[in-house]
Design a protein that fits this description.
Distance between the termini: 72 Å
InterPro entries: Kinase-like_dom_sf, Non-receptor_tyrosine_kinases, Prot_kinase_dom, Protein_kinase_ATP_BS, Ser-Thr/Tyr_kinase_cat_dom, SH2, SH2_dom_sf, SH3-like_dom_sf
Biased composition (Polar residues): 27-45
CATH topology of the largest domain: Transferase(Phosphotransferase), domain 1
Family: Belongs to the protein kinase superfamily. Tyr protein kinase family.
Strand content: 15-25%
Structural class: alpha+beta
Region (Disordered): 26-45
Domain Protein kinase: 227-484
Shape: elongated
């Protein structure tokens, strides 16, 4: 009984010491301590009779027969004795004794699974989700088993708005390497080298990834009773958004939609898109409730609300043009990622961009988002179209593409640099479309730099092919932002 309790519930050692002040002798421990010591020292001097092990945890000896060890200490194990191993320390000490087998591991096996940076059993997508979480920052990293090859690993490192995955292979003699001309005896040594010499892989390796609970890919559908909407944050063309709580403890944003407003095919496309998209400037999906009324789409909560309300508030009104440029660059980063994934947003507007601490911005509301299967997506059903934000070909013919999102991005730039003014103020939807067909374009906002206004105008070109890509927009705006920052110094 004592051996079982001490082995399986070692965290109650103090209790076991009170119950059993004198340790029962495990089976196989017939030799006296002096005999064990003399025998083990002799055997340890012969490599063929001992194996090197590593202590996984601290272990405090409870009798003369046992050996006190510290986590990470190297031991020569002479033999197994029941649930124990007879071991001597490799550091030159003559100490010898018994250690429970569940406290040690053979050093020939990779001893890193209890390292803070090692994540066992997670996929490439889950690694990206963890590294992009709000708890982690650029330079965060983790090592995980390879999904493709057994006995190989991957080093995943977050670099600003993307994650780079480096394949870690092993040589014939068991060494680890990312680059063939540099191999290391352990993953710890490999990490130490690339932390000091990160330029070899062009990726700073700075902080072990912060661990947190990941939702199972099979657990997106959650019980409606787990969520409690508390305060209405806003209402868009395609549903309401509420601040709420998850299981009474975790703040979340809850988007509600009526079953009658969407068909099941559209809904499933939206959810699949949300699941697959991971980027620092996109809102993160937590869960969905599609059974019953209304539908819930549960995402992370951004404390400062939507961008339109924020830049029109007292806090937003004091933002400088540099702050506004920072916002535009973040939105461009998120949209460039969507474009790379061939996802058309179809409802890009300041009201669908959320703001958090430190002016962080994330694109939200994929109520009209669709994976672009063909060159254009043309829905057959009629939907509410926000005409003043929508490209003419989409408003007139429901012909949506990545380039129609570019047009909408130009309107977002206008909203940002006017601190939330409505575009085409005083015009009806019909008048807007008529004026656009005659060449009218919104004027330059007072706070908008001239070169940014030129970018706006390029977003509103009649010919879709003549509009810039989001990758081009991102690069140009980042360059302008860098120049403005240098001018301020």
């Amino acid at each position: 009984m004592e051996v079982f309790a001490r082995k399986n519930m070692s965290f109650l050692d103090c209790l076991w010491d009170r119950m059993w002040p004198h340790l029962e002798q495990p089976s196989g421990m017939s030799a006296s301590p002096d005999q064990n010591q003399n025998l083990s020292l002799k055997e340890a001097s012969d490599p063929s009779t001992s194996t090197t092990f590593i202590a996984l945890y601290d272990f405090r000896a409870r009798s003369n027969e046992e050996l006190t060890v510290r986590q990470g200490e190297s031991l020569h194990v002479i033999r197994k004795q029941g649930d124990y191993v007879l071991a001597v320390k490799t550091c030159g000490s003559s100490e010898v004794g018994l250690v429970p087998t569940n406290y040690v591991v053979e050093s020939s096996k990779e001893f890193f699974f209890n390292e803070p940076w090692y994540f066992d059993g997670i996929s490439r997508t889950e690694a990206e989700k963890l590294l992009f979480s709000s708890l982690n920052q650029p330079g965060s990293y983790l090592i995980r088993p390879s999904e493709t090859y057994t006995d190989q690993y991957s080093l995943s490192v977050r670099i600003q708005n993307r994650v780079i995955h480096f394949c870690i292979k092993k040589t014939d003699n068991g060494k680890f390497y990312i680059q063939k001309n540099r191999s290391f005896s352990s993953l710890q040594d490999l990490l130490t080298f690339y932390k000091m010499n990160w330029k070899h892989i062009k990726s700073p390796v700075l902080y072990p990834c912060v661990r947190q609970e990941l939702l199972s890919t099979d657990a997106w559908e959650q019980p409606r009773s787990d969520f409690q909407p508390r305060r209405k944050l806003g209402e868009g063309y395609f549903g309401e958004v509420w601040e709420g709580m998850w299981k009474g403890t975790y703040p979340v944003a809850i988007k509600t939609m009526k079953q009658a407003d969407v068909n099941k095919t559209d809904l499933q496309k939206e959810i699949q898109a949300l699941k697959s998209l991971q980027h620092p400037n996109l809102i993160q999906l937590f869960a969905v409730c599609t059974i019953g009324e209304p539908i819930y789409i549960v995402t992370e909560l951004m404390q400062k609300g939507n961008l339109l309300s924020y830049i029109n508030s007292l806090e937003g009104r004091v933002l400088s043009p540099l702050h506004l440029m920072y916002i535009t660059c973040q939105v461009a980063e998120g949209m460039a990622y969507l474009a790379e994934k061939h996802v058309v947003h179809r409802d890009l507007a300041a009201r669908n961009i959320l703001v958090g601490d430190n002016l962080s911005c994330k694109i939200a509301d994929f109520g009209l988002a669709r994976l672009l299967k063909e060159e254009f997506y043309s829905p057959s059903s009629n939907t509410k179209i926000p005409v003043k934000w929508t490209a003419p070909e989409a408003a007139n013919y429901q012909r949506y593409s990545l380039k129609s999102d570019v047009w909408s991005y130009g309107i977002v730039l206008f909203e940002i640099f006017t601190y939330g003014e409505q575009p085409y103020s005083g015009m009806t939807n019909r008048e807007v479309l008529e004026q656009l067909s005659h060449g009218y374009r919104l004027p330059r906002p007072r706070a908008c730099p001239v070169d940014v206004y030129q970018i706006m105008l390029s977003c509103w070109r009649d010919e879709e092919d003549m509009r810039p890509s989001f990758q081009n927009l991102r690069d140009k705006l980042n360059s302008i932002n860098t120049n403005l920052n240098h001018m301020q110094k």
